[in-house]
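Fig. S4 source data, part A: sequence.
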Amino acid sequence: MSEVDIGARIRDRRLELGLRQADLARRIGISASYLNLIEHNRRRIGGKILVKIAQALEVEPPQLTQGAEAHLVGILRTIRAESALQEGELDRLEEFATKFPAWAQVTAQLHEQLGTFKQVIDGLNNRLAHDPAIASALHEVLSTAASIKSTAAILTETPALEPEWLDRFHANIGADSNRLAQSSRSLAEYLERLDDELPDHASPQQEVDRFIEDHGYHFPALETPSGAGLTVETFCQNAPMSEPAKRMLLSLLRQYQEDAALVPSGTLQEAMKGQQRLDPLRLAHQLKQEPSRVLRRLAALPDLKAGLVCADRAGYITLRKNIPGFSIPSLAPPCPLWPLFDALLAPGQLLFESCTQLGPVAHRFDCYAAAQAEPPSTYNAPPVVSACMLILPATSGAGPSRDIGSSCALCQKQACAARRVMSVL
């Protein structure tokens, strides 16, 4: 791409001020013929002459060497790359920005607004695709409609039914119709609240992630003795987020407060004093606590600067505390090779793995993972298992290391048996 050069900028500015070549040459102390060569790019200039020309033209020297509207030219080039503008018009971008700066500015503003609208649309698309509340509500509506259709088909295709069965089918249709109406109403109300509750169109999980990140997964007000500090309910109610996000946050902070009551920060730091190298397993034995609880409490220590990822049995990430260099996807499924998912297969066992997350720059981390199962509330109830993984910068670069990614779409690992989608890399 060619640019309007310094000579053309000098000539355009001179004509804009209504000066003749001879007048400008006299002001800066050179001959008119020499100025003519400069304006036609037959002489290179710099230093004192450039400063004198800029002073005479009432501009700063960078405006002559870089262009008065260089920032607009950059935006116009971006617009050109995204449009079907003919190649022949490309050489006139800087001329347009220089001669018509107001119109160029309007064009740039419209392009910026278009980019903002695209981000909002992408956010809404992601919201519709990944919001668990919308997904479950749609599933409820569709399954209920299918049930009504099935029952209606039986009534239509069976001419003679015993009164007892007929009453039962009618009762089923009535109950399913009420459930369908309630589910549809709830879904409509949820969608209507999106603009009021989520002005930035973030999902509830993204709101919680942002809130956790802003606080560094450290909530001193919830670690005070019972009754001396804020209740979890009050703390969540005051959080600047939507109601669905507050419900998610409430569950996380209840666990945080329970962990803090059983493993106070002072007790944990006192137990760590005798360790030359952090040993979560030894801490779990010393404190007589589940390994997963110890990992969560370690992540809450500000001085440790550790990362933390928690997930449920389905592999859905419920909590993320970021650590520099370790990429945790916000929407895409995470890498299935993380030790976090190994821990889900063995609740109560503490796993350790040195991992290298592949990327433009490979970073090595020490990963500790553990899972715990909630006590069943009834007989034959399926276990509710959750896992967490503490992430720390590797203490040593030697020894074997497990290669992991962020998500399949952004992983450059070749011939990976766990890959589910092609990588964009």
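Fig. S4 source data, part B ends here. The chain has a mean pLDDT of 82.
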